[in-house]
# Entry
Amino acid sequence: MRRAVSGVRVLGKKSYKSNNVFKCRTYASNVRVTHQHRDKLPRLPLPALEDTLKRYVDYVTPLVSSSELEQTKANVEKFLKTSGPELQKDLTRLNEESDRHSSWLEGYWTTMYLDIRDSLMINVNPFLILNNPRGNELLVPRAAALVHAAAQFQVQLVNETLEPDMEKTTPLDMSQYNKTFGAARIPYSGRDVLTYSPNSQHIIVVSRNQFYPLNIFSSDSTPLSESAIQSHLSKIIEHSYKAGLPDPIGTFTAENRDNWAKVRPLLNQDTINKIDSALFILCLDTEYDVTDKNEICRTMLHNHAQNRWFDKIQFIVAKNGVASINLEHSPIDGHTVLRLTREINNAISKYDQNLNSSNANSTSLDLKPLDFGLKHSERDSLYKAIDNGRRLGDGCEMEVVDWTNYGKDFITANKVSPDAWAQMAFQIASSRTWPDRQFPASTYESAMMKHYSAGRTETLRSVTQESVEWTNNFKIWKQTGSETDRNKAIESLRRASDAHSKRMKECKNGEGVDRHLYGLNQMNKNRRIRLAGYEVPGIFTDKTYGTMGNNVLSTSNCGSDDFDMFGFGPVVAEGVGLGYMISKKRIPVVVSSFEHNLAKRFADHLRGALRDMR
# Structure
């Protein structure tokens, strides 16, 4: 039996075979099944230029004035007759040159994330509050259960025994799972880099801003038992209190990426490498006993950058056992985390302490926290990072709408798509939050494309001409109260739901608008760099393109019985972030905003919309 050897590599190579074999008492099969459908998955299609431009006009029609729309139509026609076909050829060539298991989009999509210079905290990383299948547990047993179950998941990943994801009978791409644990985002000036340590056996435990490495596998590559992990975590917490409060170096990971890139090389590189190569970060919030849902969300989203490391996936556990995942988003999407969490909760539910005897003594525990070697000359940078983390956290307001009057069962009984229902409620809340807006706010919803090789997401634009009709008819009914207007509003809701579902299907089939236009614009930027006197097409410079991309409502549906809530920060200064779930009897929505009191105002109007729609 070969033991796994930790090593870091830059993401990009597509080999998933591993000679390293981990042991796990829960899983007996050694048959490699995880990527069995990999060669059968279709590649992401490149839509016809004419089709995308036709959809683009349809997408923006409800968002702009008639004069702006006419200008956009003229730019679209010119684009179709001039530079558009040439840019499409460039994209076609890229598609042909791409790896069989890649696409014309993958490289640009990854670098889009890595080019972001803003803080990952709030701006990029979402959080997901986890349900506990065992009920209430305090910090140490809850954290130990999560770590042991995550170790079992890692065993499945390395041994490729994780059953493939399926959407009914359609297999889904599994490549993101190899980027879940061991991934690290490394800051560099201008663009970050992803590294991956696929065979690590250690995690980093953060307690009171001190970082402790912990090997979670025994000498025979078997995951440590929960009792063994509990013993180690208890010792780490005790030591962190005796050691006092150190400099909160993790706040650097919440800094502007270029600023962090300057400081990072000046720190102890052995410590940095130990963190980078860890499977994940476990943050133990030993002094936070939060119960208020708004405060829980703030703690799990940012915690003012205290006791955190945002460059990697983090499991966060509060003193009272409330736990979450804070996700470094660049290599993986929400659907992958749904499966991760389901597997973790299944493992926790099935765990039998009697079959997993303590092996605490089979791995050593170094109770010396990692030394970052911060030089005195860099202390001003740290103080600035601490201030920035506090300011950014204070500047993001959050309000939870935990709607329990009805959920999916009631919605489907009324012959409406649950997701469309939620999105139409958002449109009503938006119209009430900004009553003076002449046109609806551009609304982003992510649509999964994992049934394509290396598929990520497409943007579903939730504002349609049908949704505008619904909003107007709903408003009329609320003013008149007449049965005729009520019936008209109901019929328009069903039409809006059908239009939303149709657009979702198109997006999942690779027939959206945003990603194709994004690819064409990247080709446009390449030509602008290479060709003197190159004229940028008007389609990318007119006001309409910016209006569509200004996601005042940034929304994502991440429903699962394994989560209690999830959320993220807004993506524009004047907008809101809406992380929502739709369960049988409940619709929890986490609303975030940078603008003061906006999250609360939108949340109040959303509660009213959900009530009035019943």
Remarks:
- Residues 483-508 form the longest helix (26 residues).
- The two ends are 61 Å apart (CA to CA).
- The CA atoms of residues 187 and 503 lie 37 Å apart.
- DSSP finds 18 helices and 18 strands in the chain.
